[in-house]
Design brief:
Blueprint (H helix, E strand, L loop, with lengths): L31 H9 L5 E3 L2 H15 L5 E5 L4 H9 L3 E5 L10 H7 L4 E4 L12 H10 L2 E5 L7 E2 L2 E2 L6 E5 L12 E5 L2 H14 L4 H17 L5 H14 L3 H4 L15 H11 L2 H20 L5 E2 L9 E2 L4 E5 L3 H11 L6 E2 L25 H9 E5 L6 H15 L1
Parallel strand pairs: 2-3, 2-4, 4-5, 5-8
Antiparallel strand pairs: 1-9, 6-7, 6-11, 8-9, 10-12, 12-14, 13-14
Bound molecules: pyridoxal-5'-phosphate (PLP).
Length: 412
Amino acid sequence: MAERGADVPPTAGLPLRAGDLAWPHAPAASDLGAALARFLGVAEVQIECSGTACMVVALTALQRLAPTRTEVVVPAYTCPLVALAVARCGLQLRVCDLQPGTLDLDPVHLRQLCGPQTLALVPTHLGGRISDVATAQACAREVGAWTLEDAAQALGARVGDRSVGAHSDIVFFSLAVGKGLTLFEGGALVVHDPALRRACAQASADIVPRHRGWELRRSIELLGYALCYRPAGLGLVYGRPLRQALRRDDWVAAAGDDFDPEIPLHRVGRWRQAVGVRALERLPDFLAQGTVRALQRRERLTRIAGLTVLGDSPSMPDAAGTWPVLMVRMPGAAQRDAAIRALWGTGCGLSLPFVHALPDYPRYARVVPAAEAGALPHARDLARRLLAVSNSPWLDDARFERVCEALADFSR
Ligand SMILES: *Cc1c(COP(=O)(O)O)cnc(C)c1O
């Protein structure tokens, strides 16, 4: 077992400052939707209480527009909250395999899954990596469905001179802990077509209650984050529960994949929005520094034989993703598991993005269709070989170098 040090967070989250936490006096100071719209270069941003809530609201709006369409196609390797959001809307999930060694949806499988029953396709940008959207968009157009782009982990990612998501009907970003800019929990929904935007705003007005109890709870949690998201605090709030889960050999809990099936829906209050508005001012610099660090570290990791660092999709030549983590594909599942067993929990910023492909979590069997043993080969292979190296600024060069040496040992 590698030596334990201070806990580095698993992703590069933007730390808060005391000044972010002041009560907003001017209404504009708490209009996070307007601030994010300027940041993203879009007409409007609808703030919801989570990325999952964005999905529920958007799917509800689409369902009203096309009540006979009942299926949502998602990548087989993604956040289980996506499956819970689809189930919450009473829709059926269809999981699509990936192209070998990438996060791009497999176009052949995608076309098999799509038809007149399809409501939405969900191309997804995991770990800030921009995946192929054009194939999903073309497929959606062929069958009369919509694209709902999952950029939960990619706020600030660009394609050409526009924000990621510009080429889909709808895109959402998560403002949860660990996804960059955070309100502890929050989501940003962007809808390009004005009529569809009004439909999403109406769906939100109809299904999302104010619910001050949830907002109070999230406000306290955000204060806790502001206090603890620093090297001295992470041992208690992140490292300790992680090591407890690892002692039980519970990787799903260790990765934070053990989501509650209940999806809270409530309005985001003024104070949390104001915290987001102030922190957002620092996000461009934080992301730019993260990119510089990640590109250097990517080069170092790529020198290790047998190891690949996932990049933006080759089908998106103008893509410039963000770098909350570096997603590393190990030569095989045995090597990946050995590295994770030795290093996860030692504080050095290594983790699993998600433990399984969606059909392989027993706890989500009710909301994910079963897959046969040979099905979804590429998504399952990726799930077994992937690990994430944190791009937090608190992972210093010396420690990163030790991680590289360890990964080199385990890749042999
Ligand atoms: C986190 C995440 C979501 C859900 O966002 P929340 O804000 O946590 O509800 C959806 N998709 C992906 C890929 C995610 O990583």
